[in-house]
Amino acid sequence: MSRRSDRALPDVPSSASRWLKTLPIFLAILGASTLAIFNYQKASSSIVNSTLYALRTSPRAREVLGDEIYFRDKFPWIWGEMNQLHGKIDIQFGVKGKAGRGLMRFRSVRKTRMGYFETQEWSLETEDGRVIQLLEEERKDPFKNTALQAEVKAEVLHNNLS
Fold it and tell me: The whole model's pTM is what?
């Protein structure tokens, strides 16, 4: 088999067209990965763990959901904003127990830069549309660390008197 050295070379496809074909696929994978990473960060945060623990120990939530309260989905999606630096937490995610399923909402704000977070809403919406308020007036805020607050107030008072 012999080839002529002066033969015409085949056309080489433009590399730009190949890049243009694969760029949308690359950007879609990059976007999906970024969303998954940020959601994983939210799902494994102390805020979500604390609200889920408080939900498990809430008598009203256990009435509705039953025992073994956990995320509704195998890969939970945490909706909303979780911005501790600017003092705003407003999240919701699906939960389930042995007796039912629902959507837990939690909203808390910090009004001053060095202040404490104040829980504004902590509720559970069931699949049939009922909304159960878990933050009761007569019951203390389950997310407030009153021992720590008392210790800080005592220290500030002591420093002011000294």
Answer: 0.72
